[in-house]
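During the no-cost extension, the postdoctoral fellow (Dr. R.K.) reprocessed legacy sequence entries with the updated structure-token encoder. One reprocessed record is reproduced below for audit purposes.
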Amino acid sequence: MKDKEETFENNYVTKSVERVLHESMLPYSEFVIMDRALPRVEDGLKPVQRRVLYSMLEVGVLPDRPYRKSARIVGDCMGKYHPHGDRSIYDTMVRMAQGFNMEEVLVDGHGNFGSIDGDSAAAMRYTEAKLSPISLELLKDIEKDTVKWSFNFDDSRKEPDMLPGRFPNLLVNGGTGIAVGLATNIPTHNLGETIDATVAYIENKDITLHEMMKYLPAPDFPTGGYLLNTSEFEKAYETGKGRLIIQAKLHIENADNGKKNIVITDIPYNVNKSVMLQKIAKEKEKDSTGLLSSIYEIVDESDRSGIRAVIKLKRDSNVQAILALLYKTTDLRTSFGVNMVAIASGKPRLMGLLDIISYYVDYQQQVIYRRTKFDLESCLKKEHILEGLYVAICNIDEVIRIIKTSKSTSEAKSRLIERFTLTDVQAQAILDMRLARLTSLEVEKLVSELKRLKQLIREYTQVLKSPKMQMDIVKKELLEIKEKYATPRRTKIIEEDIDISETSSIALEMAEDVYVVVTPNQTIKNVSQKGYNMSNKDLNDGANLFEVPEFMCVANTQETLLLFTDCGNFYKLGVKEIPQCRFRDKGYQLATLIKNLTAEEKIVAVFKEKDFVAAAKILMVTKSGMIKISAGEEYSIQRSSAVAIKLREDDHLMYVAPYTNERLAMISESGMGVSVPLDDISLSGRVSIGVKGMQLADMDLIAGVSLVGENVTIAIISDSGFAKNMPVSELPKLPRNRKGVKIMIGKSIFKILYIGLYDCVCVSGDDLIYVKRASLQTGNKNSSGKSITGNKAGKKISNAFTYDIYE
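Re-encoded structure tokens follow.
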């Protein structure tokens, strides 16, 4: 039945609800959902965000160029791509420049861009901006036809439907928006963890959510704080919906006269600090005779270096009870409702973590395919022209004759095409060629360039034909972005499922002892005492090198560590700067936590700074057999890093330890051993080379050293998998710089890999072999030991590490 439509005096129109919905409401809803409120899964951006970034790229406000007025950027974006008013554009740009809203800021703002206290940004005529370095990764290769394009609002130019998005921005920076009948609220995540999760998916498309969460355990908010209800994380990642509990990070300070202060250093995400403190003050006024009456002053001491809000308490206040009440009544504890809705496959979808990463990885494969195709076509065009120029150079005299005897350019072109079987493009390139290209150097450059292009064409062709190579490129470039931009996690995860009712309170960030673990794969983590005691330390249970504690110490969260590397340097690292993990977690790459640590440096020793610098004597040994003894106070420095020992070329530091008057057992890779006294070696300065400790044959190096007493045995392991405990008395006591004696024999003994006084872990192919020193057979220097590889023929040990653990 046709809708009835009536008019009365031409002032209004009567339509049925069904028709209004069909003609007006549904198109409006679709526009709001698709083109305004929701981000796309490919680049994690809403249309206005995408337009701002692309417009800034067009204007040329790049990270290495000067800032430009925000009004200019806003006007350019509004005039070309987003004709919906300057306010929405500027507000978007401001948010992308706010470090307390974005995990990775996409706009580098100069001027007043607002604050965490709710202060609004200055007017656009007063502020300046440019793209941040990481935003270029979202825009990278957009000029190479990597994305689809559509006409803008007036069909005068084209704009990208999405950006190449070379890192998973939807997860990293999250997103929030309200559409018609739909809403999204995606939390932010740590860039490094997100890339690790994406790479894990690329390597194994069948990865489970539980396995994925080893790489991406939980959201990470730019304002830090604590995440409490860990049981909700997996549900949120599985269904796309969940509820996270975020709590402020704080600690207790002792004040004068026995009073205590509650010091807030991180606040929950999306919380206005000023409003939060005002709320605490109001709750104090309301509770004038109760617990909160113990608060006598609230002071905001925040500055550019970070947040610091102090709640000053009266003497003998019940701190835990006060905190429990504040958690219940103020924004010291808030919730974040996860609702991961984004545009995928042309429509809004509620997605879990695996769905988002799957869409993103497939899109990145398309980006690499389209970029490679563009590069291939560009190389083919350039090769085609260079081949024509090469023909001309090889026949230059005839080319010049043809051009000179031609009446016009068109005739010259036609004659060249006919004489040398060229295309129109090649002939035109010859006519446009400058005479300077005829020099011998230029000819060599042309031939070299042609050879390079042919190689590139072969590589691009292979990539286009191989989806696996395309995915390898995606993985490689993601890891490069991680290496360049990743930072440690800001939001600390409380592993235990704790009661978050009104009477509970989290353990405060007071000084506490933790276990600091460094693994052979150069990762570090701090493990809580409770987490360490409850952890499974059985390395036979599917462990890998990220779980082997090669160096380990118990340290206070207020202490500083000294980490020594094989390149002869040492670095200072605060324990509180090391993210907390479970014992079996992967940990964090040292290079992301330690400034100036190079990829080539390997940690060889870890100590607490205060204990180390207090030592009277510090022993250092290098792979070439050099020994140096210095005073611990030599290593008391203010800088974050310094030289620990001067090394000769191709030498490496291998051993560092405080000592008293023990002897030093030294064994070389070829199986020579000696016991050296240390009491006759004089102290030397920090930047000194030391003296020769053991005389080595050509190509031989020190396999291991150990400070030993009189009646001990040391474990010795060879690359062929034979091991034994040998009494130190078997080693001859000789002055330094002697060859020593053979300490292991046998037909299959070729290279010593390990000596030590502790249990160790050996690497054999993809297997880890846990070796308990007490289980090794004791033998003298003339024995070959017993196999630890199960007597499998040809099974070799490639490396061995001390298994440093506290029982």
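The chain is about 30% helix and 25% strand. Residues 60 and 803 are 54 Å apart (CA to CA). The remaining legacy entries will be reprocessed before the final report is submitted.
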